[in-house]
Amino acid sequence: MDEIGIDIDVKDYADENEYVDQNEYVKQNDEKSRNVPESVENMNYKAKTTYIGISPDGSIVATFNLLKSLITIKKIAKNEEYDMGPKEIVTIPVEMNKFFDSNFFDSKSFFDKKPQNILGWSLAVSDIIDEDLGFVAISCITEDDMNPKGIDNADLILIVFDLIKQALQRFIKVFIHYCLVIFFILYILFVSLPIPWSVTLLCLVVLINLFYLIRLCTSYYITNRGDVDQFRLPWISSKGMTRIYKFSFSDEYNPSVHAYINGHVRLGGIINFLKDSKHSLKNCAILVCTNYIKIQKIIIKLKGGSKVSEEVAFLLPENLFEELKGIKDAKRNWDYLLKSSHQEFLMVDTNYNKQIHNIELYNVNTAQLVNVFHRNRNNSLTSKNNEPGAFAISTDSRLLAYSYRDNIITLYLMESGIEIVSKKIDNISKIKYLEFIEKDKKLLIVEDVKEGDVKFHVWLLSGCLNDYFDISRENIDSSYNISILSNYNTITKANGKVVFCNDMDDNGQFEVVREINIERTTFGENDIVTDEYEYISRDLEPWNVNGSTFRGRFLNNDKRYLLIIGQNSIQLWKSKSLNFIDFNNFKDFDNSDLIYILINDDLETEKKSDAKFQIDDDMTTIISHACKSLAYLHKHDSNINKEKRQKFVGGITNIIKDFIDRYPDNWKLMEVQYPLMAYLIYSRSFSLIKHILFENETLHRPQSKYVSYPHYVDLKLYGDFDDDHSSKSGSLEDNVTNDLELALNFDEDQDSVMLAYLLEYYSENAMNHYGWMINVTKILSKLPTDYSKSLFYKPCFGGIKSNFLNKRFKSLSDSLNLKVHLPVTWLIEAKSLNFFKYKTIRNEELPNIYVVPFSFSTFDNNSKVEKHSEKGFISNFLNWLRKLLFPHSFDILSEKEFSPFLQIKNVDSFFDVPVIETFLTSRWPETKIYWMVPLVLYAIFLYLFSILSEIYLDDSTETDKYSARNLITVIIFYYVGIYLLLIEFMQILKYGMEYYYNIFNVFDMCSFICGLVVFTFIFAKSFNENNGINNEGIVILITITTLILWIEVLLWLRLFTGLATYIYIFGSIIVKIIPFFVFFIVLTISFGHSMYVLFRHPTLLDLGASPQTFTLFDGTQNLTLTGQPPNNPFDTIWDAILSAYNWGTTDLSNFSYWPLKLFGFAGNVIIVLILLNMIIALMSDTFTKAKEDGNLGIMMFRNELIYDYERLDNPLLSSKSIINNSLYICFNRDSDSMKSWIEKCDKIKETTLYSWFNESVDKDIIVYDKVHIKEWYARISGDENQELATDNDDLWF
């Protein structure tokens, strides 16, 4: 084993175990103490002498030995990317008292003096970063790092200063992106408005910002005490320190010259190098230091002399912080954090005294919650004495193994959080340690024995029957040092390698366990020579057109089992009676059970006469081969007689069904390792799929990608599928990645029942955990409408009761019917203003908090990261300038990169579904902020149109129309108008003719064009009065344009929920009363036209109106005056219609023609009395319904804007936003607001998605021998003497 050493003179040291008297320690280690530097003897010591660390990829192990003052780095595996260099040993002398010296490395000291109360040390080593260079880090941990004192003494002035600094940084960031808009606003304030108005508005803006700061400071004091304590912690100076050294395995490496790095971190804690760096810089390593105070990410760059810089820091998850706060002991807190962290993962397992039994797992690298895992409630009956459970994560981060440190292990799928299986091991008392080994094929279990000893156990995860083994010392490979494995004090692990170290040993010896060889019984033929018999029959291989000769022999001369080797199949049959009499006694399904079959065109080696039949992994091999054989039979369906094919299908189905019924837990393990459901879907095994999904416990687990299955390549999954059944848009391999997509691909005729089965199964189980819907989310937009209508009214779409450990949420404004919250599913940044945005939901509200049953981690524009970060300054500046001066362009993104709800084309039909409203509300805040900029620009456009129209239409010579100020204002007007017009043109380019289908889009376009064109006429006329432009026409155009522009303002105000509601109510009322208006207009026209005809011939009807007469007394006599004859109100057809419309004010008293009087009375009754009351009643009823339609209109509007926003190349739309970082969305469930959805849900709650399908498979064609088949399971598992299980028993669990 190649190694290098880094020699360190240890001057000051204290360890992590119990303190012992220094003199007693030296007395017990007299010989060792002679080599200890003098300054070491002045310190109190603990018993531990060696620390150990392993690189993330498991290729390097580092040990730090105190007494020998030595860091030793050993290669234990090859690095897949770099050649780590030749063998070499290097020592670097470092005086430990300079570890805390202010002159060390010519940089500022971490301490002005040596720290007190040192708790211990932590060691970490990185992978090879570049060529053959890597880093090793040592962290000094003090008691104040794990249980700080004096939180109340944090510098409040410094805290307020930092908060103000952050507020200013945010303002500058906003200013950089929107400086042009801000300039326009300021220009209008100071140029176009009077000075008093400008000053008043500016003062108002300043007051608003002061109010924001005051509210911020107030939030600090009104927050509960626990929040304040955690918020203050990052401002407390750490007493610990972390130093980083550079190492290399090359010959050129000189430790005394190259090992030192100009940098250190004033922080002590548990340190780890991260495996997968998400940092944009190359040739760097990320070190994470975790303590009670915070989680600090540290960037170490190779470029420029290996510089160290602190990146971002995070607070501990709240529940973990509260747990540590309750312990109040530094050493126990250190131990708790050690057991809660592994590589980049941090586990929160603190709620065993509460009703909710969950585990939360965070990824420190991404600062995101990985998932929530439901813990078995039976496991929470025992006390852990403030100790987290033991957990392990597979090397591919696919599986999580967890134990409550009793004798039960639970396996989970990481991507969904769903439990796979729980295994109780009776001969284990307490599990101490877990780790996946041998490419995640095995789980190593370390048992803590009461006497202080340990035992080793192995669990095979393939799903085989014989899956558990005790590993005694005699069974451990002789290459391992048994004394180290049995007497270790420290364990570390990475990438499937477990390192055991005796930290009490001066030599720092360790042992790496990569594999544990287990002797397993392989079922198959032995060396006993058996007679062969030749069968000539097509019944044994009905899928082959040409008959062939079959070789048959009794397996190892055991007449219970007959092995048949055919042209392209291997079959094993078991007699239904005790034994076969002879070869001729075999009558296939009539007197035998098919217990193994593999049909494959590539069985050349198995057909050789000297080839032995072997089954390596007992029932795992049998079941996977059975599923492959079903796929083969379907693939060659056209060549097989239906009756003969059904026999084999029935026989294979019975193999699988019987195993599932007897060993459901083994099936669960098999199905997460092998894509078995894919074969069943492809082979159209309807009855078997239904049996797995609905006739047993939850056996099937969804996984998002076939390529994530460990044995995906071994099975050659897509190679077993027929190209003729490929996806409608390409090959299956290119378009199908999981079981649900495969079923959707076969959504034709009766095959569509498989899709219905899966959707029903997932939606039912989703009420227990959100993870069941991970694949449903991806295909929502592809589902046929009939499926969507039924699926969206399943109970899970009304939300799932929240059971998050963290009760802190970000509440969103602009909610419609349902109040929406975002649970804090990310690590909160330390010293951040955002801390006070997250409020704790009161206990009385928690029962009404529900969760949308989808995870949004994979859809939230994770690809939208600023791509210009690695470009030069000029490129970044030009990119910023482009985005500043022009509207943001649309990114070229596929539909898969959007949230599934935005991909649904007919989403308008499902806006009453609670989860859709909740989703749109969650996406709205960022969208609204973005579209507020065009709204402000439009307000500027309207304002400038108004004042510029007045200026350039004014004939007064006192106004200087062509002053620099006015011309600049004109330029701004044209720029803003063209900017808004470009937004519309970009939408036209993106959506094509679909853009014109929306009348609001057309109105937007018309308003901008009208404003620009009309002002252009005005501006042109101001230069030449005789240019032919009519003044009257200009005024009319301005009038109409002004009205259009103000209507457009109303449309823009839809961004605000309150105003949008009334706008859509108005629009909804107009739409609903249009039929009445049509009726009213037709009726009015009919009366008007009738009266026009009547008054058209007055001389024929004696319809002349008598002129009015007046009597005037002049003092001597009465004078009679005769007025003009009254005008005919129905003189023309248009006058007649208008008079009919104003029937109540039309005076017919001057006409004495009695039919006209009768006609007038009828008009008054019908038009004035009846129609007026009709419209009053109609409006009252319509308003109530219009409120519901108003909410529908708002959601449709938001859906359009959100869809546009998430397509934009927008620098503010990044993965760092709160919305995009939210893994889940919660809401307050309001039964009144959800009334419509609940009613529809109740109507179809008893109807399954597959109720239309009438299964016609004859299950009685093949009957399995339920009694005698038990001995087959005993034999295949390698223990024929064991007690046979009953039908529902499990041989092993």
UniProtKB/TrEMBL annotation:
GO terms for biological process: calcium ion import across plasma membrane. Its main location: membrane. Keywords: Membrane, Repeat, Transmembrane, Transmembrane helix. It holds the Pfam family Ion_trans. It is found in: Membrane. GO terms for cellular component: plasma membrane. The chain crosses the membrane at residues 174-193, 199-222, 929-952, 964-983, 995-1019, 1034-1055, 1062-1087, 1158-1178. InterPro entries: Ion_trans_dom (IPR005821), TRPV (IPR024862). One of its GO terms (molecular function) is monoatomic ion channel activity. The keyword Protease does not apply. Residues 937-1189 form the Ion transport domain. It is a multi-pass membrane protein. The keyword Transmembrane applies. This is Ion transport domain-containing protein. The lineage of its organism: Eukaryota, Fungi, Fungi incertae sedis, Mucoromycota, Glomeromycotina.
